[in-house]
């Protein structure tokens, strides 16, 4: 789907994107670059970060890191300041998924979920806050509709994604007086590499192809489809831009209408 691209909304501004090598993070980088922003791309794997950066029509640096580790993310922030002189926006998009209900998840799997989803956002934002205060910048945290509703058998993911909403609201409350905004986006199913893996797993269980699995999980949503990364990136770019200057502490859902459906009544509509 082609999105309109207002020119120059991020001209002269520097945006740090975590989990920038694939999916929503890569789409955000392309969107911000198309609107004149400088990019700091980070994630655990260098190769996909470089691939994304090579395709951007804007100044960009690649700094591989585990952004849930304080020393590493401090290096990412320092590199961004050295390259561009300021840091205006953080898009905390890094995350990970480990399946399992509470009784089935061991300590390592639990810690991974918290580390990949919650710690990555908290540690990144904490390192960036002095610069965001100086720039009167903002944070966009990427949660999920799993931050609003509980899916089956993903206790770590659901818990950490719920916690990201609390983190965002806390940031909004504590730092709004310093001119820093913080908002959270909750996508539903988005066609990304991580979602592809889950669709393939579902397809093996039900003897479906990937596209058929996507169709199955989205058939009861009002739009009857999943979102594309560029669509979610457009929402994130709006929240990060001056056009959303009155928005902070907001939870913005981009789920093709999934959260608007009263699931217990679906049987009555057939």
Structure in a nutshell:
This protein has nine helices and seven strands; from the N terminus they run E-H-E-H-E-H-E-H-E-H-E-H-H-H-E-H.
Key words describing this protein structure:
46% helix; alpha/beta; 270 residues; seven-stranded parallel beta sheet; Rossmann fold; disordered N terminus
Description:
This protein is an alpha/beta fold and 270 residues long. The protein has two domains: 14-190 and 227-256, Rossmann fold (3-Layer(aba) Sandwich); 191-224. 46% of the residues lie in helices and 12% in strands. The protein is built from nine helices and seven strands; from the N terminus they run βαβαβαβαβαβαααβα. The chain has a seven-stranded parallel β-sheet with strand order 3-2-1-4-5-6-7, sandwiched between helices. Strand 1, helix 1 and strand 2 (38-42) form a beta-alpha-beta unit. The longest helix is centred in the middle third of the chain and has 29 residues, at 107-135.
CATH class call of the largest domain:
Alpha Beta
Shape field: globular
Distance between the termini: 30 Å
Q: Under the CATH scheme, which architecture of the largest domain would be assigned?
A: 3-Layer(aba) Sandwich
Q: Percent of residues in beta strands?
A: 5-15%
**Helices and strands: which structural class?**
alpha/beta
Largest sheet: 7 strands, parallel
Number of strands: 7
Mean pLDDT, to the nearest integer, reads 94
Helix coverage percent: 40-55%
Q: N-to-C SSE series? A: EHEHEHEHEHEHHHEH
Annotation field: number of helices: 9
Major sheet: arrangement of strands: 3-2-1-4-5-6-7
CATH-derived topology of the largest domain: Rossmann fold
Unreliable runs? 1-6
- Rg: 18 Å
Fourth CATH level, the homologous superfamily of the largest domain: NAD(P)-binding Rossmann-like Domain
